Amino acid sequence: MDKHSLKIKIAVLAYFEKDGKVLLQKRKNTGWRDGWYGLVAGHVDEAEPYKLALCREIKEEAGVDVLEEDLEFSHFLSIPAKISDCDRQFFYFTVKKWDGEPFNMEPDKCFELAWFDKLSLPENLIPVVKSGLDKMLAGEKYSEFGWEEGYTERS
Question: Which pTM was predicted?
Fold first, then answer.
């Protein structure tokens, strides 16, 4: 790849919290980190505003309606191509309000949606998602994952 051409994939992630618990989904049949937990999330389509993309993904995956104004930017995470197929950017948003009770809308791609105590998250939480989530919960707005020299684990 031309070093002056940068290919970036952008993902938006939803942080739902209720009564000290965080909503996670357990992946299946996706080809990446199946059996691992992550946040409700998805990729941004070309020319799609990020908050609108997340509202769409939340509806598709968790069946609840969220308005763009009820999403609060919480964290940005940068991931290098050396641990993925290209550079990636994760934008974490806190869902301040939603309409309905989240449920598994994609049983072909998700084993379950489940609420976990935010102080006791499952060990099989996707490492890159956990890294950003930990930083976000610590109040940090920016972090990087996998950029340090010698880091080789695939995200």
Answer: 0.92
